[in-house]
Amino acid sequence: MESKTKKTELAESASVLIDGRIQELGDWRGEMLARVRALIHEADPEVVEEWKWMGTPIWSHAGILCTGETYKSIVKMTFAKGAALKDPAGLFNSSLEGNVRRAIDIHEGEKVDEDALKDLIRAAVALNLETKNRPKPRRASGKRAG
């Protein structure tokens, strides 16, 4: 029971840190990060907020779904397993050359296709749950018959 309480406390403190980041930005990037965060929660009410890697908001469900990084001219959502997700709306516009991750760079004034983003979040959750529930392949023993 103690570990569940610890996880809850960590999630609550991460949420407070994310709130702080949004306030500290105080411009369109804070507004966009807040909007993206709300969409993530709408798409997956069970999402867990985390704060990692020296101040990066992370959203997880059975593993990392995406990060919400802010830079001088963009808000970047990086999907941990984005290369494995179908993106019929073409939201991914960054980190396209990688084998695993994909990102969405949102610039000031851009409109986000909210329904498509929520679909991507739900697909990322489904992929994480599928991967988590898949039986692990058995490794061959290091000993040789002989």
From TrEMBL:
Entry protein name: DUF1801 domain-containing protein
YdhG-like domain: residues covered: 30-125
A Pfam family this chain is assigned to: DUF1801
InterPro entries tied to this protein: YdhG-like
Provenance organism: Paludibaculum fermentans
